[in-house]
Amino acid sequence: MTDALTRIAEALERLAPAPAPAPDFTAEAFAWHTAPDRLEPVARVSRVDIGLLVGVDRARETLLENTRHFAAGLPANNALLWGARGMGKSSLVKAVHAAVRAEGFDLKVVELARDDLPSVQRLLAHLRAAPHRFLLFCDDLSFSHDDQHYKSLKAVLDGGIAGRPENVLLYATSNRRHLMPRDMIENERSTAISPSEAVEEKVSLSDRFGLWLGFHPCDQDAYLAMIRGYCDAHGVPVGDDELRAGAVEWQATRGARSGRVAWQFFCDLAARKGVKVA
After folding, report:
1. What is the pLDDT of residue 209?
2. 107-111 and 29-33 as β-strands: parallel, antiparallel, unpaired?
3. Cα separation, 241 vs 70, whole angstroms
4. Domain spans of the chain, in order of start
């Protein structure tokens, strides 16, 4: 009889679990997870110093100023960082967060995965009630033609009847300016009865971001400057001629130049020089 009652109690607990405890916001960074809902503290954020981000000066200063305004309680805009792969979009968000915290602002960052967008209202309820200011960071954001997750994103950008929480700001990165592939945009326009309305809802989603910051492929000088900056910062001894020859060959084998390719070459170079990179 006792075993049966125990099983019934466990079944009822699964159907109606106890309310989750209030999040502990002592950490500076969190990752949002569902099933069950929880804000998991991130002990160490993977990021580079803002001074090592080369070739993104305008985007860096614009995003830094916007973040300072928000951290100080002033009006600020949600930001969409879009453009070329590997050019430091997500690195810039994390570096700006660290830079603003270093200036004395207790700004938190919460990473939200694209697949967890449907749960964003529950996340916002936690953040709205907290006595802190939060950057909500959604990396590599994009939607396919039949993807309904974009509707959940509007809760952050528009906020519905309650409005967006005053203490929450959204920064998102994407390879696409309009968050969906251009061929899908053109296809829906060509097959719809009302072409102008067919994609307006999805395409206009990016218009809801107050800041659009574009990232473009770097030239060779910027690519080499990135690697030189990493070498100097981490104490990797290498001459300019050796660095240039190796970096150009590495870039040729990858068929591309970007901040990501520069970092990958630097890691290989540091290993060959016997230098550990923290």
Report:
1. 87
2. parallel
3. 44
4. 29-42+51-214, 220-272
